[in-house]
Amino acid sequence: MKTTCLVKLCVITAALLLVGVGCGRSSKQTVPDQQSVQGQWSGYNTKRPDSKCTVKLTGNQFEYRGVETNDWSRGTFVLRENAEPKEMDLTILEPAQQSDRRLFAIYQLDGDKMTVAMSSIQRPADFTPNEQTEVFCCTRD
After folding, report:
1. pLDDT for res 78
2. pTM of the model
3. With the CA atoms of 46, 44, 89 and 122 taken in that order, what torsion angle do they form, in degrees rounded to the nearest 10?
4. In order of start, what are the domains of the chain with their CATH numbers?
5. What tens digit of pLDDT does each residue of 54-92 get?
6. CB of 95 within 8 A of CB of 54?
7. Left if phi > 0, otherwise alpha if psi is -120 to 50, otherwise beta: which for 100?
8. CA-CA distances (angstroms) from residue 24 to 3, 29, 32?
9. Torsion angle defined by CA atoms of residues 10, 13, 17 and 19, in that order, rounded to the nearest 10 degrees
10. Which whole-number Å values give the CA distances from 69 to 53, 66, 72, in the listed order?
11. Torsion over CA of 78, 83, 85 and 91, rounded to 10 degrees?
């Protein structure tokens, strides 16, 4: 009798575990970064925290606006989320005097927060600002 109850208990426990974990399949679906970054972001350059900016990401297009009326740019971006750290390449299309300028960046997403380190010379290795690297901290609006 004890053995029969123990076997039934083990079978029920195993069945509940299989249902709970979905037989090894994850029920959590990950959203690609290209989709996660879409929208309006507000942030600042870590070298000048009082200098606010906004960035709008739509499809593969970006629009950057700083505090000053002449501090803006538009262009395209490409994400490589499988790289470590994750990579972003930006190509500035406007204003005309900066068109075809490329920026090499790394980024990290944490919910509604995004950190981007970028340089026009070479891709940053980490998120430490220096003479060649600008780091932006942004929050989704």
Report:
1. 97
2. 0.77
3. -20
4. 33-140 (2.40.128.490)
5. 999 999 999 999 999 999 999 999 999 999 999 999 999
6. no
7. left
8. 29, 14, 22
9. 110
10. 11, 7, 7
11. -20
